[in-house]
């Protein structure tokens, strides 16, 4: 249910754009839908994720500027800003605390040595940076319609491919954290 809610704003944005051909109209719908989505996730989970709040703030700010100034470029920058904030967060986590953020997020499920955690962290930093750059290339070099398609299918497709590659890499170099009652064995 949460996964569907997470994708709901982009799916509705895409649908409204395809129905109207108007980025301003799609953005006008995106803002309240994103507010509703964040509220619904909170009501379901009783948690507010920081990045969800940052994304909401960017939708409101950049979407608001898009509507106010009747200029779609502001909302077209949102995926880049979000991806670059993720990249910066992952990078800065190397200097705050003893573990990169990816290790903090996944270490309860998988085991990697510190060098492998760093490689995984840098892979995420690179992925987020490149995703942001690709968004700008598509936004500035192709039609608005192509950008809307890329925003849904291209960025999502790249994320799925990256997650599959990451999963294969983790399967090769990592191991599952044993649950209670299981002994850790060396293979």
Assembly category: single chain
Largest sheet entry: 2 strands, antiparallel
Percent of residues in beta strands: under 5%
Number of strands: 2
Radius of gyration: 19 Å
State the helix count: 7
Give structural attributes.
mainly alpha; two-stranded antiparallel ribbon
Description:
This protein is an all-alpha fold. The chain folds into 2 domains: 70 residues; 107 residues. 78% of the residues lie in helices and 2% in strands. It is built from 7 helices and 2 strands, in the order αααααβααβ. A two-stranded antiparallel sheet has the order 1-2. Helix 3 packs antiparallel against helix 4. The longest helix has 30 residues. It is globular, with a radius of gyration of 19 Å. The mean pLDDT is 91.
Topology:
Layout: H1 2-20, H2 23-45, H3 50-69, H4 73-92, H5 101-106, E1 110-111, H6 114-141, H7 144-173, E2 175-176
Antiparallel strand pairs: 1-2
Q: In brief, what are we looking at here?
A:
It is built from 7 helices and 2 strands; from the N terminus they run H-H-H-H-H-E-H-H-E. The protein is mostly helical and 187 residues long.
